[in-house]
Design brief:
binds heme C, disordered N terminus, about 20% helix, Lipocalin, 4-stranded antiparallel beta sheet, Immunoglobulin-like, single chain, 8-stranded antiparallel β-barrel
Amino acid sequence: MFGKAYLIASGLLALALSAFSAPALADGKTLVNDYCTACHAENDTGGLARISEVRKTPEGWDMTIFRMEHLHGLELDGDERQAIIKYLAAENGLAPSEAAPFRYVLEQRAHFVDSAVNDDLDALCGRCHTNARYGLQRRTETDWLKHMHFHIGQFPSLEYQARSRDRHWWKEVTTTTYKELAKLYPFQTAAWDVWKAAKPTNPVGEWRVTGHRPGTGDYEGTLRISRDGDQYSAVYDLRGMDGKKLSGDSKAIIYTGYEWRGSGVLNGIDTREVYALSEDGNRMTGRWYQADHYDIGGEFQAVRMDGAEAQVLLKSSDFIRAGQHKKITLYGTNLTGKVKADKGLDLKIIDQNSTTVTLDIGADKNITPGSYHVAVGQAETTLIVYDKIDRIRIVPDWTIARVGGGNTPPVTAQFEAVAYMKGDVKIGIMPAKWQAANFNEDAEQMKDVEFAGHIDQNGRFMPAGAGPNKARKYATNNAGNLSIIATITEDGRAISGKAQLIVTVQRWNTPPIR
Ligand code: HEC
Ligand code: HEC
C-alpha cells in the first residue's frame, strides 16, 4: 500500500509547479486550525498537541501529512497541502546546522553511508529506515516517548520481526532510548531560536554555478533567480567541460528560509532540485537529479555574483604530468587579479575575464611531484603535478544497483576512477576502461556477470530487468555480486582498481526520506 501511495506523497517537489494557482487559499495557520484541530487539541503552551511539539524538514512534514491523510482520513487538496507544509516547515522546521549532517537523504543520493551515533540506535531504529529519518527531527522528551508508542501501535509485529529478536525493543525504547533521543535531538535549541528570529535571505539575482555530474564530468555557468509570487524562477546557462550546453529553467519553493526545492527541465529532461541556501544567503549547495531517475544527476554549487570575493570554484583539470603542457581553465568569481604560480610551473595566459581564466601551463620535467599553488589575485587554488600513477581507487568502492521493470525503473550505479600517486596523493578522476566480473565463486557459479546487467565506458552500471529469469539457474532473478574493474593505461603500463557492486531487487516503498 505504501509504495503506490507514496508516489502521490512525494509530490512535494512536483507540486511546486501547481501551487498557489487558486486565488482564495487561506494561509497556513488558518488551514492548520481548520483541518488539524478536529483531532489535535490545544495544549498547555497554546500550541496544538503533537503538532507544536515536533520540528521537521519539509519532507518530514510531507510524510506526516501523508499519514494523516491515508491512515487517519484527513482530506486536503493539493494547494492546501502545500500551504500547510510550507507553514509548518517555517514554524517548526530545522535550523540549517541541524539538517546539515543528513542532507544526503534529502538529496536522494543513491549511494550514501547512513550511520547512527551508536550501535544501539543503529539496531533499534536503523534496522527499518535510515538513521537520518529521526536525525532530521526534533521533539520534546514526551513527544519522543509518544513516537515510540506510535511505532509499536503502528507496527505491532515490530518486536519479533527478523533482525529484531536480539533485544526487548519496547522496554528499551520506552525506558532509555526516548531520553537519549531527547538529548541528541531536543525540541528546543539555540540554533533554531536564532534561525527563526533571523531576517530571511533573498536569493534573487545572478549566481555563479559550478558542479559535477558523476560519469559525465564537471560543468559551470550561471543561474539567474527571480521572484514569482510565492515561488522562485531559475534560469540556467551551463556548459560541460566538453563545451556542451546544459540549459533550462525551474520553479522552486524555499521552505524554512533556506530549503530550496525545485522542479525544472535541463536539456529537455525533467529534474528535481534539493539545495540549501547558506545562512548568509551567499551560497547554495546541493544536488539535482532526473525526476524519473534519482540516481542520475549532478552535484551543485552556486555563489552569489554580487560582491563575491575572488575565488576559484572549479578547474577544467586538477592535475598535470611532469614534463607536460596543458590548457587548464579556472572558473570562479572576481578573477581579475594577477596570475601567479609556484616555481616549476610555467604559465601563459590565453584568456582572462572575471569569471574564467584559461591558462597554458607547463610543468618542468624535473619538478618534484606534489601540490602547487596557482593564484589569481586573492584567489588561490592548487594543481597536482604527478610523475606516475601508483594506484587507482574506484569511487564508490562498493555500492548497490537495483534491477528494474514496470513502474519501477532500474537504479543504476555510477563509478569513477580516481588516480593516486606514490605517498597516497590524490591526482584526480581519469577516464578508464570499465569492466565487470563475478565477485566470488558463488557469483561465478550463478554466472552473475552474464545476467545482472552491464557497465558502459563512462562507468555507469545499468542493471538488467526485474523478475524471475528462466534462463538462470533456479529461474532466479537478475541479482548479482560483481567486481567492477577500472583500468588506466599509462606509458604502456596497465593500472587497475576494483570495487564491489551488489545488484539487488527493486525497492517498492520510496518515501521522500528513506
Ligand atoms: C482524523 C484525525 C486527525 C487529523 C484530522 C489530523 N491528525 Fe495528526 N494525528 C492523528 C493521530 C491519530 C495521530 C497519532 C498516530 C500517528 O502518529 O499516526 C496523529 C499524529 C500527528 C503528529 C505526530 C506524529 C509524529 O510522529 O510526528 C503530527 C505532527 C500530526 N499528527 C500533525 C497533523 C497535522 C499538521 C494535521 C492537520 C493538517 C493533522 N495531524 C490532522 C490524527 C489526526
Ligand atoms: C519495525 C521497523 C521500524 C523500527 C524498528 C523503527 N521505525 Fe521509525 N518508522 C517506521 C516506519 C514504517 C515509519 C513510517 C511511518 C509512516 O509515516 O507511515 C517510521 C517513521 C519514523 C519517523 C517519521 C515519522 C513522522 O511522522 O515524522 C521517525 C522520526 C522515526 N520513525 C524514528 C524512529 C526511531 C527513533 C526508531 C528507533 C527508536 C525507529 N523509528 C524504529 C519503522 C520503524
